[in-house]
Design brief:
Blueprint: E1 2-6, H1 19-28, E2 36-42, E3 50-52, E4 55-60, H2 67-85, E5 91-95, E6 111-115, H3 122-127, H4 132-140, E7 147-150, H5 153-159, E8 164-167, E9 186-190, H6 195-198, H7 200-207, E10 213-217, H8 223-229, H9 231-235, E11 239-243, H10 247-256, E12 260-262, H11 271-278, E13 283-286, H12 292-296, E14 300-303, H13 308-320, H14 322-336, H15 341-359
C-alpha cells in the first residue's frame, strides 16, 4: 500500500510540534516495511527532506521565518502536489486544520480526513471577524469526506461526521509501562506552550496558591510570552523551565513528578495524559469533555476550567495525600495497557487497508 499523509505539523516544527505530528511519526514508523509511506508537512526554516525506513518526509511551502506564511503556503503547495501526484498513491490521509485545507477529497477516491479537536466559536473569540472563514471551514469541510478518523468519540460527535468513521486514539511507547514511579518535589506541565489553549495563564495564577514547585516542559510559539509570565515564579524558585524534552529526559520528568497538570481550555486527546498514566502518575485536568475519560478511569482529578482557585485547591489535595497519589497512579497504569502505539498502529493499518479495498 502506498500512503500519502498530508499534515502541516512536524515533530521538528518550531511553531507547533504538537501531538498530531508525534502521532503520525509513532504510527507510521511501526508500519510493516511492505508499505510505502510519504508524509508531506509544512516547510519551516532549515527543513530538508529525509527518510526513516520506508517513510519519506517532504516539506512544502515557504521557508521564511513566519508561521502564517508557512501554513497558508503549505496549503497551496500541497493542493497543487495532490493535483499532480494523488494518483501515484493508493490512499491519501489529510490531517485536518481549518487554516490549511488541501482538498484531498477532490483528488482521490480513497481520501481520509483525520480530526483532532474542534474549536468552534473559539475562532471568533480569538480572531473576531477574521475567524469567520476558519469557523465555517471547520464546520463544513469534514462533511465532504466519506471516511474519517477521530481520536475520540467526543471529537467525532462535535464534528457531526457522516459516512464511515473510526475512533483510533493516541498512545504511548510500551516501554513506559516498565518505568517504576518515583516522587520528587515538583508538579509537571508537559506540552505545547500555547497560553490560551493550554491554560498556562490559569496555571500561573494557581501556582501562587499551591504548596509545591512546578516544572514547565515544552516549546511552542508562545514560549517567550510564557517565560515572561512565569518570570517572578522562576526567580523565586517556584517554577523552572525544562525546554523541549524527549526520550529519557521526558520519561524521567514524568515518572519522578508528584503529578501532572493539564489546565487546557480545549483539547483533542493529549499524548501526555496517556504517557503520565503509563508512568503511574495522577493528572489534574480541566473539566472539558475531552479529558473526562481520565476522571472516569480514576487517575484524573478535575477542576473547573479557567478557575485558578479551584485548580490550586485540587493541587493541594494531591500534594497532601501521598496514598491518594499512589492509588490514582495504579489506576492510570491499568488504564494505559490498552493504548500502546503498537496496538494503535495495527488498528490504523487495518483501517487504511479496508479503505483502499472499499475504494477499489
Amino acid at each position: 500500500m502506498k500512503v500519502l499523509h498530508c499534515i502541516y505539523d512536524h515533530i521538528r516544527n518550531p511553531w507547533v510540534a504538537g501531538g498530531g505530528a508525534f502521532r503520525v511519526h509513532e504510527i507510521y514508523r511501526r508500519f510493516p516495511e511492505t508499505h510505502d509511506i510519504t508524509i508531506v508537512s509544512g516547510a519551516y526554516p532549515g527543513a530538508v527532506p529525509y527518510a526513516e525506513g520506508n517513510t519519506r518526509y517532504m516539506f512544502l511551502g515557504a521557508r521564511w521565518n513566519n508561521y502564517v506564511l508557512s501554513t497558508f503556503s503549505y496549503a497551496a503547495k500541497t493542493a497543487n502536489y495532490l493535483r499532480e501526484h494523488a494518483g501515484d498513491y493508493d490512499i491519501v490521509v489529510e490531517d485536518f486544520a481549518p487554516y490549511n485545507p488541501v482538498f484531498s477529497f477532490l483528488r482521490h477516491k480513497a481520501a481520509v480526513i483525520q480530526l483532532h479537536q474542534r474549536e468552534g466559536i473559539l475562532h471568533l473569540k480569538k480572531y473576531f471577524l477574521l475567524g469567520v472563514p476558519f469557523f465555517l471551514v471547520e464546520k463544513f469541510y469534514p462533511l465532504f469526506f466519506s471516511s474519517s478518523v477521530t481520536i475520540s468519540r467526543i471529537s467525532g460527535r462535535k464534528f457531526g461526521l457522516r459516512g464511515r468513521t473510526v475512533v483510533i486514539p493516541n498512545g504511548f511507547d510500551r516501554e513506559l509501562l516498565n518505568e517504576g514511579p518515583e516522587e520528587e518535589d515538583y508538579m509537571l506541565f508537559l506540552g505545547r506552550l500555547h497560553i490560551d489553549q493550554k491554560g498556562l495563564d490559569v496555571l500561573h495564577d494557581a501556582l501562587l496558591l499551591a504548596g509545591a514547585g512546578l516544572v514547565v516542559a515544552g516549546a511552542g510559539k508562545d514560549e517567550v510570552r510564557v517565560r515572561s509570565l512565569f518570570e517572578n515564579a522562576v526567580n523565586s524558585g517556584k517554577a523552572e523551565f525544562a525546554g523541549f524534552v524527549s526520550g529519557q529526559r521526558k520519561t524521567d520528568l514524568l515518572r519522578k513528578c508528584l503529578f501532572m497538570v493539564v489546565p487546557s481550555r480545549y483539547e483533542g486527546l493529549p499524548l501526555t495524559v496517556i504517557e503520565a498514566a503509563a508512568c503511574g502518575k495522577p493528572v489534574i485536568v480541566s473539566d472539558i469533555p475531552e479529558l473526562k475519560y481520565a476522571v472516569d478511569a480514576g487517575f484524573g482529578l478535575p477542576f473547573r476550567t479557567g478557575d485558578a482557585k479551584d485548580l490550586a485547591d485540587k493541587m493541594n489535595v494531591l500534594l497532601r495525600d501521598q496514598s491518594l497519589r499512589g492509588e490514582m497512579g495504579k489506576r492510570g497504569k491499568a488504564f494505559a495497557y490498552d493504548y500502546t502505539w503498537d496496538r494503535i498502529a495495527a488498528d490504523y493499518e487495518n483501517f487504511l487497508l479496508e479503505t483502499v479495498k472499499g475504494a477499489r
